[in-house]
Amino acid sequence: MLISFEDFQANLSEVKGQIEAACRAAGRDPSSVQLLPVTKNHPVDVARYAWEAGLRAVGENRVQEALGKMGDVDPELRWELIGPLQSNKAKKVAESFHRVQTVERAKIAKALDRYAGEAGRCLSVLLQVNAGRDPAKSGVELEEAPALLEAALGCPNLRVDGLMTIAPLSDDPEVARRTFASLRECRDSLSDSFGVELAELSMGMSGDMKEAISEGSTMVRVGTALYGQRNYAG
Ligand SMILES: *Cc1c(COP(=O)(O)O)cnc(C)c1O
């Protein structure tokens, strides 16, 4: 069931080609968009594939699953949390992950800050914003984003690198595009009012990379297009 390295390489060059085409269409430099392979629900082998192919970070959405894999890959591989985080896992996460993309409450920011400090680390975070106003999606509401940013900027052991969003499920690509445009506008407005860069816009997945890149994504999080369906047990 595990995808072969050769098939992964073929998928990877396909995905890279799509990213380049989307960048060309948007008049952007392809090096301004990072590809984050999403290894969740796959065996650890696929994180090794990413490393072998020269990618240096992977995304996981469950804390426990990621912790179980970390020891089995080159220790230089960076792990980014892209799934929901409960405070009872904040200590482990602050000690082990390189970035948390899903900070959506001040309470979580403060917990991560405390544990990162205790571990003597500075943890990179993104604020997850519900830019598509989707009741089914996590993330801080657009109106609450300034208060969350203020709280996060008050955390000395966190570095707020930008924002992340997940577009609502829809057959209409315009829904995703509008969501991504809202995230960019939210970032621009926060950046102005707080005088911080917030350079990272983590948006776009296998199905909506093109829309995300045309709206300014700096990081696409791609699982299925690289590794195939994840409906089997690792
Ligand atoms: C699973 C997941 C992805 C990857 O989705 P694909 O459609 O498989 O590319 C991206 N972002 C988040 C937050 C995810 O949970």
From TrEMBL:
Keywords: Pyridoxal phosphate. InterPro entries: Ala_racemase_N, PLP-binding_barrel, PyrdxlP_homeostasis. GO terms for molecular function: pyridoxal phosphate binding. The keyword Transcription does not apply. The modification N6-(pyridoxal phosphate)lysine is found at K40. Residues 32-230 form the Alanine racemase N-terminal domain. CDD domains: PLPDE_III_YBL036c_like. It comes from the Bacteria. Its cofactor is pyridoxal 5'-phosphate. The keyword Isomerase does not apply. Pyridoxal 5'-phosphate (PLP)-binding protein, which is involved in PLP homeostasis. Belongs to the pyridoxal phosphate-binding protein YggS/PROSC family. This is Pyridoxal phosphate homeostasis protein. It comes from Pelagicoccus enzymogenes. The lineage of its organism: Bacteria, Pseudomonadati, Verrucomicrobiota, Opitutia, Puniceicoccales.
